[in-house]
Amino acid sequence: MLVCSRCAGIYAGIALAACLPIIGGLQRHGTVLVLLAGSLMALDVFTQDLGLHAPLHITRLSTGLLVGWSAAAYTLSLICGKRVAAEPL
Q1: Rg for the chain (alpha carbons), in Å?
Q2: Which sequence spans correspond to the domains of the chain?
Q3: CB-based contacts of 73, cutoff 8 Å, min separation 6
Q4: pLDDT score, position 84
Q5: pLDDT digits (tens, 9 = 90+) for 17-45
Q6: pLDDT at res. 26
Q7: Which of the four pLDDT bands, split at 50, 70 and 90, describes residue 82?
Q8: Which of 26, 39, 65, 75 is deepest in the core (most CB within 10 A)?
């Protein structure tokens, strides 16, 4: 692969966000979702670096996918929400 599993997951998550954006109810909690996803990824990185578990590609891919999707979907929902609110009636 040209990129690591975690980076591939992030890129795939960003692409997935264009197809599956965060719906209105989750937009309120988008910041929490992004922070939670980032925390899970950081926990995976730290536990792997400390030697507590082997580097598993599925774990790297899934945490990257979650971070990429949550960050991009939340950002897109904010952009689209502001654009819709700014349109005149």
Answers
A1: 15
A2: 5-84
A3: 17, 20, 21, 22, 30
A4: 41
A5: 888 766 665 667 788 999 999 999 999 99
A6: 64
A7: low
A8: 65
Q: What is the per-residue pLDDT for 73?
A: 87
Q: How far apart are CA 47 and CA 53, in angstroms?
A: 7
The Cα-based distances of 30 to 22, 25, 64, 74, 87 in angstroms read 8, 9, 17, 6, 23
Buried b (16+ CB within 10 A) or exposed e, 66-78: bbbbbbbbbbebe
Phi, psi of 67, deg, nearest 5: -65, -45
CA contacts within 13 A on the Cβ side of 50: 7
Q: How many residues does the chain have?
A: 89
CA 39 – CA 67 distance, rounded (Å):
9
